[in-house]
Amino acid sequence: MSLSEEALVDRHLGNSHLGNSNPLESVALSLGYEKKTIIQSLDLVIEPKQITVLVGGNGCGKSTLLKSFARLLKPSSGHILLNGADIHSLSGKDVARKLAILPQGPVAPEGLTVEQLVRQGRYPHQNWLQSWTEDDERLVRKALQDTNMTEFANRSIDALSGGQRQRAWIAMALAQNTDILLLDEPTTYLDLTHQIEILDLLFELNITQKTTILMVLHDLNLAARYAHKMIAIKDGTVFCQGAPEAILNHDMVKAVFDMECHIGADPLFGTPMCIPYGKGRKLDSQAAKHV
Amino acid sequence: MSKSFSVRHRLFSFSTPVRSLWSMLALLVCFLAVMVFSLCLGEEPITLLDVFRSLLGQADQGTQFVVETLRLPRALMAAMVGAALASSGLVLQSMIRNPLASPDIIGITGGASAAAVCFLSFFATAMGMVWLPVFAIMGAFLAALLIYALAWNHGVTPMRLVLIGIGISSAMGAVTTFVIAASPLSTSITAYIWLTGSVYGASWVEVNALLPWLLVSWPLAFYLARRVNTQELGDQLATGLGVSVQRLRLVLLFLSVIMAAPAIAYAGAVGFVGLIAPHIARRLVARSFALLLPTSALVGACLVMLADLCGRLLFQPLDVPAGVFVSAIGAPFFIYLLYRQRF
To the nearest whole angstrom, how far is the Cα of B285 from the nearest Cα of chain A? Predict the structure, then answer.
């Protein structure tokens, strides 16, 4: 019996509750809207205390998968296990104390300030009588500090730049104080500076607080730089998964994105770097040297 | 971080911005001032001193009668109607995440109006006027039920709710107009005054009938406040924070109906308060439902009381329905607030 089969049996016997179970995993998961199936019987394990990045083409089902991991979508069959328990057997607040999700392109109500937004992250920990404990105040302060948003605390969200706005939302998720953080394309619509800033912030968070991070990213090169593990999704199923340096190669990009490319090494980080073929200006090597 | 007033105890804790508390205090003072004015002013002006005396039961019989039996219930009724409609508007705007919602826009008022007009034309003589509020409330509930049922599509989305609400509102408007046109003139006039909205001749009976609804709906709204704030961040985030959005939406629609329907039933289809009061409240206090609720209610109460005061005073001996002046006072004030905020 191979190791993975053994783990599977353990899981079905419920042994995973005892040991150090994985924070998040899917068992025979199928997802779909209406009659359209998007994910078909998928088994996937999200490693604890690591950064996992989902990559894949548009409409491949990666965002749907992320949503189902956050209990936003009910599986048509199969299960999502959060620390070994079926996520749909838990209450919304129970889940929210363990897992935070930042969906794509969230919109804040007009006039809401950063601090008010970040305070909302405390919702699952509060109740009607205890709506502002010392813990609440401490964690909101800390979330603002960690995201460098303290100076903007009283600004309205609409008055912020794109990068600051995204940091405010991340601060809200941090105030939720969960071990697991899910993000759907946190860098979309941001310029390069702010993309790096957001990803650095998440990387830092993973190191200092051991947060398990699962996110969808479009940029393969940035994904390769920050992810411990990359999961390539194609047609609703996992095409391959593993460390980016192990799986990101010409054949994988060809299969998942239907694109020819050259894989080199990032001159700064040594992580794999995907350079797409295509049209464009080509400088001859002589001219390139002068640049 | 902003200056907050925080309370911490073993059993409870909360925090609220200091500035918002001052705004609410100022508004409360305004409210009391308008209330006192409503008692002083009228066909027969009464001095401030006499008003206080009669409230304590120490004035002469005539003054006592004017204050206690005529003006006080009428002012209270205006205040409660305004507060109820404003709260209902706030609940709807928060639920739909759109500032253009109010009971009169999404068809709740329309349902009550259609039912009330049908009652006036077909049942009033047989059953007696006391049944009018019952019909109006039922009409409002039916309209809300219809909106929710038609908007249902694996759950309801705010956009579907508001669009179908607007559709229902116009359909109800058509029914109302048709019944009025087909009725004898005397009925049409009564119906028309009801549709404008008036607290003319309000007595303690109506005050006592309306009050219990508010005593149920307001605590429920306060109880839901934190959930409503979360819901305003969007369905996915709210669900992610542990709120069951669909159930909350149904409860909020129900809440908005139990707030608005009785007010409309006893005072008629007073429009505009439900739309404008929450907007004015948002300019005054921080964006938190628990602060916006009392603020909107106070703004709504002041608006309708002022409107009724104008209706009574400006065209004496004519008593113009309060509904006419709600827009006349509310709109310029609202535009002024928006104008001031440009800078």
Answer: 11
